[in-house]
Design goal:
Elements (H helix, E strand, L loop, with lengths): L2 E5 L5 E4 L3 E5 L17 E9 L4 E7 L3 E8 L1 E6 L4 E5 L2 E6 L4 E7 L6 E8 L9 E6 L10 E5 L7 E2 L5 E7 L4 E5 L5 E9 L2 E3 L2 E3 L4 E5 L3 E6 L3 E9 L3
Length: about 240
């Protein structure tokens, strides 16, 4: 029997630190909801806005796969492995925190905000050597298609992580529909609508709504308006 869970945009946790505004789909920092701890191996989905010239100072992580997807502006990354990089819309960044890393994330610009998704996935291997990678995507490859941006395999399209997970970005024209077939048995898909109106298996979703579905092999997706969304396929057992 198919199972699903709906998280409307306005039901997410809300944090306003002045320089940082964040909406939390799952429990994070001061937001705690026992009904929203994770979706399978997907632990964190934060929708962050960082004001001009501000950011997260150096802080530690370990044994987590951390993915950043910039939506607007320029985010400057520095870490204890010696990496210094700027990521912007069209880029995807990944870190395997493994045995432990420190990193900072700052809005590089003094005159505009930066918006990005910060996503954490539980790894299937602990205490790995920390690593960092980033790629720049061809935005045209998600027009009425599922553009793979993450997988478990270094040789596949996108970045890779230590987990049996696949992420896809898609930008559908109004009225376009397509089926997404799950890559692995026992996985679920968590869909997050970046903008527009989408229906997934007849569940209507609006901007920033989240919808998780599992115990099924494929899902039918239709754009009810021009829409952009992220599909995160992850194991349902950790």
């Amino acid at each position: 029997m198919t199972n699903s869970i709906l998280h409307k945009a306005d039901t997410r946790g809300n944090a306003d630190h002045g320089w940082l505004k964040s909406r939390h789909t799952f429990s994070f920092a001061n937001y705690y909801n026992p009904e929203r701890m994770h979706f399978g191996a997907l632990r964190v989905l934060n929708d962050d806005v960082v004001e001009a010239g501000m950011g997260f100072g150096k802080h530690p992580h370990d044994n987590m796969e951390i993915i950043s997807i910039p939506l607007e502006g320029d985010l400057e990354h520095q870490d204890s492995m010696g990496n210094v990089a700027v990521i912007k819309n069209g880029d995807v960044q990944v870190m395997s925190a493994g045995t432990g890393i420190f990193h900072s994330e700052m809005n590089k610009n003094k005159d505009q905000r930066v918006k990005f998704l910060q996503i954490w996935v539980f790894p299937n291997r602990k205490n790995v050597t920390p690593r960092y990678d980033q790629i720049t995507l061809n935005l045209a490859d998600r027009h009425n298609k599922f553009q793979q941006i993450l997988s478990p395999n270094a040789v596949d399209a996108g970045v890779w992580i230590y987990q049996n997970a696949w992420f896809h970005l898609a930008k559908f024209d109004k009225g376009f529909s397509s089926d997404y077939t799950f890559k692995a048995k026992g996985n679920g898909v968590y869909a997050f609508v970046l903008n527009g109106d989408v229906s997934i298996n007849n569940q209507n979703l609006k901007t920033r709504d989240g919808f998780g579905i599992w115990d099924i092999d494929s899902i039918a997706i239709k754009a009810e308006s021009d829409a952009e969304f992220l599909l995160m396929e992850v194991p349902m057992t950790i």
